[in-house]
Design a protein that fits this description.
Elements lengths: L6 E4 L3 H14 L15 H4 L3 E4 L6 E3 H4 L4 E4 H8 L1 H16 L8 H4 L11 H32 L1
Parallel strand pairs: 1-4
Antiparallel strand pairs: 1-2, 2-3
Helix pairs in contact: 4-7
Length: 155
C-alpha cells in the first residue's frame, strides 16, 4: 500500500475499519506508538466518524478533525488509488512482453493478455486505465483545492 501525504481514510463502519486495518497489517505498517495495527479498536471511539491516516506510523481521529487541512478519502477511493492488483498486473505484463516475439505483431496484445481474440481490452487493462485516470483526477482535485484556498486567503 502506498503512503499518501496529508491524507486520511474515512471508515464509517466496523467492516471498513477492519478491512483497512488488515491492509495496514499486510503493508507492515504500525500505529504511531509502534504497536501492530490490530492492537486495540479505535472504531469504538469515533464510530461512524472514524478516520485513520494513510501512512506508516498512522494515527486516528474524528472526521471533523481530519477534514481540516487533509484530504479525506473513502476506503473505496483509497483502494482504487492503491489498486494492489495493478502492481502485480503490470509486473506480469512486462514479463510477458519481454518473452513475446515480434514476429507476429498482430497477436502481441492477445499473447500478452491485454486483449482477447475478439479485439477487446481485458478487464485488467480497463481496471488499470481507470486507476490511472483516478490518480490523475485526484492530483487535479488536489491542485484545484489548493488554488481555491489560496484565492480565499487573498480575498
Amino acid at each position: 500500500m502506498k503512503e499518501l501525504k496529508n491524507t486520511a481514510v474515512h471508515l464509517p463502519t466496523q467492516v471498513e475499519y477492519d478491512e483497512y486495518i488488515q491492509m495496514c497489517e499486510d503493508a507492515g505498517w504500525k500505529w504511531c506508538d509502534g504497536t501492530a495495527p490490530k492492537i486495540g479498536n479505535v472504531w469504538d471511539v469515533y464510530k461512524g466518524k472514524t478516520c485513520v491516516l494513510v501512512k506508516n506510523s498512522f494515527s486516528h481521529g474524528g472526521l471533523e478533525h481530519y477534514r481540516i487541512g487533509l484530504n479525506v478519502l473513502t476506503l473505496h477511493k483509497l483502494k482504487a488509488l492503491n489498486n494492489m492488483k495493478t502492481n502485480n498486473f503490470m509486473t506480469n505484463l512486462i514479463t510477458k512482453l519481454k518473452h513475446l516475439t515480434l514476429a507476429e505483431p498482430n497477436k502481441t496484445f492477445v499473447k500478452a493478455g491485454l486483449m482477447n481474440v475478439n479485439g477487446n481490452w481485458t478487464d485488467e487493462v480497463k481496471d488499470t486505465a481507470r486507476t490511472l485516470m483516478l490518480e490523475e483526477y485526484m492530483k487535479a482535485q488536489d491542485f484545484q483545492d489548493k488554488m481555491l484556498s489560496i484565492a480565499k486567503v487573498e480575498e
